[in-house]
Design goal:
By secondary structure, the chain is of the alpha+beta class. The chain has helices at 14-31, 67-85, 88-92, 95-111, 130-155, 161-169, 175-195, 198-203, 206-213, 225-228, 242-248, 259-262, 283-294, 321-342, 473-479; strands at 3-5, 8-10, 43-46, 51-54, 57-60, 220-223, 232-233, 236-237, 301-304, 347-353, 359-362, 368-380, 386-393, 403-406, 411-413, 418-427, 439-450, 456-470.
Length: 480
């Protein structure tokens, strides 16, 4: 909800909007691994079972050609987000920021009262007091529990919950998983409790990349020095009091309250201009909006662009060529990924012809039998045991002249296990009459599953192309 102060409407703080967004993201991250449709997860990269689940569709590891598309979508999405909205990913989506808000604003400030108020992020608690020391230990213990949950939640996208807890109960055979949870939790405890925003400032490489992606229309938290006054001369602070600012620039509106400074989680002064440490959390915008609103004036710190605030050339162009280019590429990648995912095959089948080209035998009726043998490497990628069989589709005009003689009936394949099958195709007809060389006849192999009624499954069905080699005439005559 918004409020009015001296005729100026103060909108709902960005901080509150971020809290709602954080809550939504947290719920999604915790719940999503538990949701299954037909035994498949929304996203699961299982190295244990060599499976990839994407949008509730299961893919085998041989189908990992989809992963580059996912990575491109992620990175291009973040880059496009940065071009348009600055380092908004850091302030609104990054787990580091969300975890710091949970620990600092919720646990330390709201629950335990270790910090005086949320708006002062520069002043650390007085740890000389025994009461604060006890609260600090309690805060770390609470965060330790949450860090263990966060570590488990991260691993649920690689080891599904239905397997995760079973594996944890068998420590001897799955100590790596147990150690991974503890390792992730230990890192999160050190990162969130002791490293804090230094991770964003010194460790995270994204802050170094963002400056390359920015342009004049990139939206970020900006101080309007045309209205507020120029507080800094380069990196040197010139004024600390309102009267000094107004003595230098009579029109300056900055009150020198430094509310925008004390609220900054990365300890910067937004009035100094664009800095790598800024994560676009917009806490400074909220602080200045409240202070200036009480004076009946709009905020000096806004979420806008250099083009609009610093250069004052006009309105920010959100959907410019560069942004539209990112959107177009993301749409193309999404369509490509969707198409490739929709054409997924529900079984894996590789066909290799045996070294011997063919085998011949004279039958009692005077006909020559010609056999071609193949090695079928087969895998059932479904979640249930199924029966499978094949059929051969010869070229037009040869229908029924090439048949499968081995295997003679459908066979069972359990999920996730590769199975080898020797398949023999036979003909007793004269398919070619070439005196100089063997004849290569293109054929199609249709492999399919049988449903409960023994009928061909439309879903679990693949087509492969191979060849049937028919001997030249002199070999046939020699058999006779």
């Amino acid at each position: 909800m918004s409020e009015k102060t001296k005729g100026i409407e103060i909108p709902t703080p960005w901080r509150i909007k971020r809290y709602y967004f954080y809550a939504m993201v947290t719920v999604i991250a915790l719940v999503l691994p538990w949701i299954q449709i037909d035994g498949n997860h929304f996203f699961l990269l299982s190295f244990d079972k060599l499976k990839l689940h994407l949008a509730f569709i299961q893919f085998d590891m041989q189908e990992l050609y989809l992963m580059p598309f996912l990575l491109m979508l992620m990175f291009l999405g973040i880059f496009g987000m940065t071009v348009m909205g600055g380092r908004v990913f850091c302030g609104w989506v990054c787990p580091q920021t969300i975890f710091r808000v949970i620990y600092r604003d919720l646990i330390e400030t709201k629950i335990l009262g270790l910090r005086g108020r949320i708006k002062n992020k520069q002043k650390d608690p007085d740890m000389s007091k025994m009461e604060n020391k006890v609260k600090k230990v309690i805060a770390i213990l609470i965060w330790t529990i949450l860090a263990l949950i966060a570590g488990a939640d991260f691993l649920w996208f690689f080891v599904p919950p239905e397997d995760f807890f079973v594996y944890l109960s068998d420590f001897t055979n799955h100590w790596t998983l147990f150690g991974s949870v503890l390792g992730i939790a230990a890192f999160l405890i050190y990162d969130i409790v002791w490293m804090k925003e230094n991770f964003c400032v010194y460790v995270c490489p994204y802050s170094r990349v963002q400056s390359v992606l920015y342009d004049d229309h990139t939206v970020m938290a900006l101080y309007d020095m045309h209205r507020g006054g120029n507080i800094y001369d380069g990196h040197k602070k010139q004024y600390t009091k309102q009267k000094d600012i107004q003595a230098a620039e009579s029109h300056a509106e900055c009150t020198a309250c430094e509310a925008c400074v004390t609220v900054c989680p990365t300890h910067i002064d937004i009035r100094q201009g664009l800095q790598l440490e800024c994560i676009n959390c917009l806490e400074c915008v909220d602080a200045c909006t409240t202070v200036m609103g009480k004076l009946g004036k709009p905020s000096l710190v806004t979420w806008s662009s250099d083009y609009e605030i610093v250069d004052q050339k006009g309105k920010t162009k959100y959907f410019r060529g560069k942004v539209l280019g990112y959107i177009a590429v993301l749409i193309i990648l999404s369509i490509t990924l969707g198409f490739m995912g929709s054409t997924k095959e529900h079984m894996l089948l590789n066909i290799n012809k045996e070294t011997r080209l063919y085998a011949t035998k004279l039958l009692s009726d005077g006909k020559v039998r010609v056999d071609n043998s193949y090695m079928f490497l087969f895998q059932n990628t479904e979640n249930e045991k199924m029966k499978f069989y094949f059929e051969v589709i010869p070229p037009k005009g040869m229908e029924g002249k090439i048949v499968i003689v081995k295997p003679s009936k459908a066979f069972t394949a359990i999920p996730g296990t590769k199975k080898k099958k020797i398949v023999t195709l036979r003909t007793t007809d004269v398919l070619a009459d070439n005196e100089r060389k063997d004849t290569i006849i293109p054929i199609t192999i249709h492999a399919y599953a049988l449903d409960k009624d023994g009928k061909k499954s439309e879903k679990v069905s693949v087509i492969r192309h191979s060849t049937f080699i028919f001997p030249r005439k002199d070999i046939l005559d020699a058999v006779k």
